[in-house]
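Record type: monomer structure entry
Structure origin: computed from sequence
Chain ID: A
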Amino acid sequence: MIINKYNYYKGFNFQDLLTKEISDNCPYQVNLKYSPQPFEVKKYIEKARENVIFELIKGLPKLPPKTKVLIYSTINYEIVFSITHRIKTTMNKSVHMCIDNANKYYCSIDGILHTYNYNHGNDEILFQMVSKILNNKMKMEEIVLPTEAFNKTGRPNSYLEPYYEDQIGKMIFYRSIRVFYTQNSFVECYALNVYESNKQSIAKEGDI
């Protein structure tokens, strides 16, 4: 049976993505172009289990609108998960999020790339962000922070003082070039609700 957008969440799992035909309209896609031959599914599953994203998507949960998961392989049996998700800010600006299993997040707001602080590159934040996406609970709101919240030394992804994120309790995105050159007392930023508890279970137990 071909996996497509109408049936992928009805009993299929991660292993099926590696072994069955997938329609182009399915939001889960796999690229095994660089897989060594002969192809060994067991080795890829073992590697995939090492990543926190695997536990969230192993049962192929139904994805929210404008969300896609790309899974591709390397010659070393590594599995890379790349998740794209589109939402709107509280002021109706377009947000394009891209998350991969290297704990890297790409955030474009109205077509402009925004920066996040380096300390978010960890499995806990990665798990929370992917969970929010799969549950369609990700929210991006517009806020302003005082210019003094930013230290304009070092790398752009370390400008924002962690104290302010701790007080707000959300992950902050900002334009580093605007922070560096601003003459204003405040900086426009965006706050993402990644720290809120996520009680809804995503992965289907016993699927793999």
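Annotation 1: The helical segments are 14-19, 41-48, 52-57, 123-134, 162-168, 176-181.
Annotation 2: The chain has six helices and nine strands.
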